[in-house]
Automatic annotation (TrEMBL):
Protein name, as recorded: Uncharacterized protein
Length: 249
């Protein structure tokens, strides 16, 4: 009986160690990919934003985002309708990986309340009634920003940056951050030290890919070069490595 207890205790103490070392060191290089692109549709509208993690000031007033319980009563229905429509367009598997963050709503009849706001309200640049903010999370800890604009009739008017073809939506579940780094290192050109790793969308090929960017160690005034590697999210054998430049003033 004593022997059994000793074995159990040994396993108990070893387990946290395994969890700690199961992630590679490059997770601190992981950045959020994508772009909500709200500036093109709603940032210039007279809007209030309602968020699941709204902040609150010391004096009790909500700023930047308002809590979801202050949103219009029909917003849950609008959100459900949107996600049902998305399931038809991009597939339920992808919709299940969407994490709702917030929604911005245009209040056309309250323009006078936003006279001191920045960016300045400009109705000529205001294109939408509702703008939904989501994070697409293909695997744990990896996030890609998704912004979706709806008009007054709750129709999607923004481009959906998701694969249209069903085969391009079958992502390689074996591609973790650690695996992506491993592939990038074997691709050919030096990629270390690594600046960042992100999950992105190629609007031309209409599919997701991973980006590993090399850090510029000694940045100089003028043109600086660095390596960058792209790995297809559905087929890790498709790897492109190339040299990029950035101008530093």
């Amino acid at each position: 009986m004593k022997v059994e207890k000793t074995i159990i205790m040994a396993i108990f103490f070893l387990l946290p160690t395994y969890i700690i070392f199961s992630q590679c060191k490059y997770y601190d290089k992981l950045i959020v990919g994508g772009n909500f692109n709200s500036s093109e549709y709603i940032d210039h509208c007279p809007t209030f934003k309602f968020s699941v993690d709204a902040g609150k000031s010391d004096v009790g007033y909500y700023y930047l985002d308002r809590p979801m319980d202050l949103a219009p009563s029909n917003i849950d229905e609008i959100k459900s309708n949107l996600e049902a429509l998305l399931s038809e367009k991009i597939g339920k598997d992808f919709v299940d990986k969407l994490s709702f963050k917030s929604v911005a709503i245009s209040y056309y009849d309250s323009i006078s309340k936003f006279h001191a706001r920045y960016p300045v309200v400009d109705m000529s640049k205001c294109k939408t009634k509702y703008f939904f903010f989501y994070n697409f999370e293909p695997i744990k800890d990896v996030k890609y920003c998704v912004g979706i604009a709806l008009d007054d009739y709750q129709q999607i008017i923004s481009e959906l940056l998701f694969p249209k073809e069903e085969e391009k939506r079958i992502l390689d579940s074996e591609l973790t951050v650690c695996k992506v780094i491993e592939i990038a290192k074997e691709a050919g050109p030096s990629i270390e030290p690594i600046e960042s790793v992100s999950f992105e969308f190629d609007p031309n090929k209409k599919e997701f890919f991973w980006v590993v960017r090399q850090q510029i160690v000694n940045p100089q005034k003028g043109v600086n070069e660095y390596n960058q590697i792209l790995i297809e999210a559905r087929d890790a054998s498709q790897v492109v490595a190339y040299r990029r430049t950035v101008y530093i003033k």
